[in-house]
Amino acid sequence: MKYQLAITIAIVSLIGVHVPSMAESIIFPAGSKFQSRWLQAQQPNNLVTFPEVGLALPQPSGFTKATAFHGFEQTETNSSIVLTKIPGPFSGVTKGFDKDTLATRGISLISKESIKINNQPGLLLQISQSAYGEKFLKWVLIFGDEKNTSVATATFLDKNTAKFSEPLKQTLLAVTPSLSSDTSAVSSLPFSITAVEGLAPVAAATGLGKVAAFTKDGNLPVTNPTDPLFIVTPSVAIVPIGDRKSFATRRLSNYPQTDITRVTSTKKVSIDNIPGWEIVANGRDRQSKSALKLYQIVLFPERGGYIVLIGIVGDKQSETYLPKFKAMALTYRNSPQ
After folding, report:
1. CATH number for region 191-334
2. What are phi and psi of 165, to 5 degrees?
3. What highest taxon heads this organism's lineage (predicted)?
4. How deeply is 277 buried, as exposed, middle or buried, from its count of CB atoms within 10 A (0-12, 13-18, 19+)?
5. Other C-beta atoms within 10 Å of 46: how many?
6. Complete DSSP assignment for 168-230
7. Over the stretch 84-113, which tens digit does the pLDDT of each residue have?
8. What's the CA gap between 66 and 77, in Å, rounded?
9. How far apart are alpha carbons 39 and 37 in whole angstroms?
10. Domains of the chain: which residue ranges?
């Protein structure tokens, strides 16, 4: 479940600041203001299909199909719609979307409503988050069953609320399962990376966006918090980052359900002619209290934004897997889009 929680909030916060954590589940009493209702959204004919996530939705006016993620973007206004499919139950993926927990991660919960989408349980949330001196608003639609969960996140600047809020909300509510859904579709990643012995690619990661994930058996979720996990994910927004070392350190501190106990090394690196920072740290899983070792590289392409490569494993296996994490990271290469 830890991996699912990590990905879900990372997806929700894709404006350059990852806020990857959720906590306790929320149970709404019958008759509460969050009581379920049906939303009947019109289904336009001009749907754009995203087979990797098995979803289709209308293309918003002025937006283009994104290359760095599944969805749409309008780069000049820092607006986007990101679509993902998470291999995990809706009940588990949505745990922790409460006001207090999100606030500890720099996210303000404005509204939350239980809904149904395509006869599946869902949540519609409005949240806000600040980054790089700007305030962003988001509509987040989450729905699914006991096997898979779909997440659609619309992001726009607060100053553009009048222009984007209602249209993007209605776009999300028009989402529908794609008739040409192909859960085995190969995602066109904007990078390549080579697996090493002991770390197998996760096929289900194609639905998570332009993300690559590796585990010891190629399956998700990992069954134990000490099992090795390696993730590669680029940022959605192409934003300038000033103090890169500080940014990389903060990014490590936001890893889900993990407390960083000590940073053991920090050094500059360059991979594929892209500068970055390598950080190795000790940590502890909050639930099991297991000792962990984290290996993170954050690369900063000239075009802006960043790329995170992070491996996490139990401390007792770190002598085996830290060299593997590093070896994999060194194979990273940007792919032309």
Report:
1. 3.40.1000.10
2. -55, -60
3. Bacteria
4. buried
5. 7
6. HHHHHHT-EE-TT--TTPPP--SEE----TT-EE-GGGGGGSS-EEEESSS-SS-SSTTS-EE
7. 888 788 988 888 788 887 887 788 999 999
8. 14
9. 6
10. 2-177, 191-334
Fold matches, 2-177 and 191-334: yes
At 68, the amino acid letter reads A
Q: Which residue has the tokens 């959204």?
A: 41
List pLDDT tens digits, range 241-288: 889 999 999 888 877 778 899 999 999 999 999 999 999 999 999 889
| Residue with tokens 């090493």, as numbered in its chain | 196
pTM of the predicted protein model: 0.66
pLDDT of 189-247, one tens digit each? 788 999 999 999 887 555 566 788 899 988 877 778 899 999 998 886 667 788 999 99
CA end-to-end distance (rounded Å), the chain: 33
Task: Judge: domain 2-177, CATH 1.20.1600.10.
Answer: no
Residue 62 exposure: Cα atoms within 13 Å on the Cβ side: 11
Q: Enter the tokens of residue 333.
A: 């290469």
Residue type at 11? I
